[in-house]
Design goal:
The chain is α+β, with helices and mostly antiparallel strands and 186 residues long. The chain is elongated and about 65 Å long.
Length: 186
């Protein structure tokens, strides 16, 4: 589970104009239509082609939990790609992104290496478009959880702790540890 990656995905999913299919039959039919055949879907989901055909015809209605999770993940990954792209573009160029984080945060300053011992803080910060663009670009390029966490920490350092550059001199680094809750919103 990728907390930061999933958080970005959830924020984008809020922009969807229609809900994704919830049941196995409609989900399978959607994937078959998107991938243009049952064979490709069977390979994607690691099941037999006959199993996919049976879901499409509603001969099987309830998948086992691991297949249900894979099915839901693959449908959500392909659902409304133009809406997803538009929401990301809007966040990256004009609106930015809001982060609500409840985590153990600390920072280090430059002059004498001073630190504020990390402590649990709850921050809700509107990040400007350039930070949203960096997060979405990194996610698109396959960045891992650590890199997304680092980019988020840099954004919080610049926007919250340095107050958009007004207190820029001494703060070197912000660490995000032990995330209790994280939510992104477009």
């Amino acid at each position: 589970m990728s907390l930061f990656g999933d958080g970005l995905d959830t924020a984008v999913h809020k922009a969807f104009t229609r809900p994704a299919p919830k049941n196995a039959g409609p989900q399978m039919r959607y994937l078959v239509k998107q991938m243009k055949g049952t064979k490709a879907v069977a390979q994607l989901l690691r099941v037999s082609q006959r199993t996919v055909e049976r879901y499409v015809k509603d001969q099987i209605k309830k998948p086992r939990p691991d297949l249900a999770a894979r099915l839901e993940r693959e449908v959500k990954a392909r659902w409304q790609p133009q809406v997803r792209a538009r929401a990301r573009q809007k966040a990256a160029t004009t609106d930015g992104i809001v982060i609500d984080v409840h985590a153990r945060l600390g920072y280090a300053g430059a002059p004498m290496g001073t630190t504020d011992e990390d402590r649990v803080r709850r921050l809700t910060v509107a990040l400007p478009p350039q930070h949203a663009a960096r997060l979405f670009d990194a996610q698109e390029q396959g960045a891992g959880e650590a890199q997304l966490r680092e980019l988020t920490a840099e954004a919080l350092r610049e926007v919250y702790f340095q107050d958009g550059g007004r207190r820029a001199g001494s703060l070197q680094e912000v660490q995000i540890n032990d995330v209790l809750n994280l939510e992104f919103d477009l």
